[in-house]
Amino acid sequence: MLIRNYLPSDDLRIREILISNIPNGYFVMDDMNMLNNWLTAQNKGVVAYPPAVADHFYVLETDKIIGCAGFYVMDEEKRAHFTWGMVDGSLHNSGYGKTLFQYRVDKVKELYPGFKITLGTSQYTYKYFEKFGMKVESITPNGFGNNYDRYYMSLEV
Hints:
single chain; Aminopeptidase; 4 helices; 7 strands
């Protein structure tokens, strides 16, 4: 198993991973536009979500790419926001998601010591992140669209 920095040649497989997570309700097809924006920014070497000052994106490989995960940094807020963490739908409950989560936590500690970690997730996945110590700060009904509530979570590291 290898976690490495994202490369533009990873795009197709990353899109396939998102699609593999639609049947179980973790993503919807509308998320593809946002993912495409993130990948385009990565490929151009620009920050995807201004006013972020930096972003990072990694892929997890075994014999092929099986997952990805990123975060962007809000320097003035001393915050790193996790985004696009996903594992191929056929590999859920394998420990790969935990590996990607912990890898990002370790990267934040290394690159941005003292920064708070945040993420937005839905009612379908927030309990997963609670297992790692993330706390729900707020819930926005339909915050991600029809029947997808937005759970804003944080972790002090």
